[in-house]
């Protein structure tokens, strides 16, 4: 399972939060304006799903670093 934060190609100030489960199915959780807000949402979701790492624009970060 992984949580991914990716920049929207059409709107550069907007970020997409995507959750991929163990079977490879993904779900777009939210699209928010601002990287800090996206990271807060991803951290809450990671804590809820007991995930230790988050993909932020291609870089793997520990949830403690968010």
Set down the secondary structure blueprint.
Layout: E1 2-7, E2 14-20, E3 26-33, H1 35-49, E4 53-56, E5 59-62
Number of strands: 5
Percent of sequence in beta strands: 35-45%
Q: Strand order, biggest sheet? A: 3-2-1-4-5
Order of helices and strands: EEEHEE
**Which ranges are low-confidence, i.e. pLDDT below 50, for 5 or more consecutive residues?**
none
Terminal CA distance: 18 Å
Shape: globular
SS-derived structural category? alpha+beta
Largest sheet: 5 strands, mixed
State the domain count: 1
Secondary structure tally, helices: 1
| Rg value | 11 Å
Helix content: 10-25%
Overall pLDDT score = 93
Walkthrough of the structure:
With 66 residues, this protein is α+β, with helices and mostly antiparallel strands. It has one helix at residues 35-49; strands spanning 2-7, 14-20, 26-33, 53-56, 59-62. The chain has one domain (2-65). 23% of the residues lie in helices and 44% in strands. The chain has a five-stranded mixed beta sheet with strand order 3-2-1-4-5, covered by helices on one side. A hairpin with a 2-residue loop joins strand 4 and strand 5. The model has no long low-confidence stretch (mean pLDDT 93).
């Amino acid at each position: 399972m992984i949580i991914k934060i990716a920049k929207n190609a059409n709107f550069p100030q907007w970020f997409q939060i995507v959750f991929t489960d163990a079977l490879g199915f993904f779900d777009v959780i939210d699209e928010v304006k601002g990287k800090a807000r996206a990271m807060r949402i991803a951290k809450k979701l990671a804590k809820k799903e007991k995930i230790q790492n988050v993909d932020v624009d291609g870089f793997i970060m520990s949830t403690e670093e968010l």
